[in-house]
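Researcher: Please translate sequence to structure tokens.
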Amino acid sequence: MIEKPRLVLNKKVVLRNISRIINKAKYNSIQFQPHFKTHQSIEIGRWVRDLGISNITVSSMDMLTYFFKDNWDSFLLALPLHPGIFKSINQVNNECHLKVLTSSVEHLKILNSILDKPLQILLDIDPNYGRTGIPIDQIPHIMKFNHDISALSKIKLTGCYIHAGNSYQEYNRKSILSFSEQLTQSIIALKNSLNIPIYYGDTPTCSLMNDFKGLDVLTPGNLFFYDLTQEHIGCCKQEDIAVWVDCPIIDIKDRKIQDVPMNMRQSDNKEFAQIVIHGGAIHFSKDFLDLNGRIVYGRLKDEASLYLDKISQEHGLIIGPKDLIQKFAEQSYLSIYPVHSCLTAESMASYTDSITLRRYDHM
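Model: Translation complete:
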């Protein structure tokens, strides 16, 4: 019996997931600089350090400071520069080994004027994702950026950074691999034009690729935990999902057939019920999966045919055939895999070990 929702973590699965990508990097003679934005935990960070990793990726100045206090001192800040953090960048650059990300010459000119010592820069490259950076196929623009910053005495271009977030829009293993093969051709062309290290990180392609041509450093983060989104698009299996949320059961009651998802009405079942849980948007976020028109926010760990079908701020509903729902009548809580583990971890703010029940911190 539990008082409130708790985020449970399987340490064995986390270590297996991390070891898999470390071994891939070693096989390809490249580095692994994991993104810590998924777990945001000093304890989990120490597991990574014990596996021989010394350089990490973060997504905010607060996150950098949090891990700096635990004796990490080599960071990639994978958040494009903006003027609001220039002062902090200068201070942190004096205290640790720092790389930052940008595609703005104007920002670098301002930074160059206030820096106490040289700063390492990664050029933000857009792999046709459309968020930030110079498009990967615009080689003349990339070369112009390199030329334009060459006179800045305290700015040192030491690599390019590519986050292929558009890989999440693919729909199965085959399409992800096809996407990665096409992107690899552009990466090789970039590397041939601007012969500097290329940092690359997104969980779908890094999970499925075995040959990392043109790349020097891998920076994915979600693959620490994985989640239903990653399973849905084919880059992991259920046994790779390392976190779930235990949610207290509030009530179990019948549900009218006209109030169940449309695909359920078309089944042979005529009686339906629902489980009301303490677990909603503030625990899982509102990220969802569209399963052929059925919107879901999670899935039961112990019954793959039952999903978290509806959420409000604090509550959630699991809807299904009455005979299946009634199997959980004697339980006091349900374990539910999240759609997006990064946001769920951010929402829950701590972890409970699945074996020892020890609590692990979150930033």
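Researcher: Any highlights?
Model: The chain has a mean pLDDT of 95.
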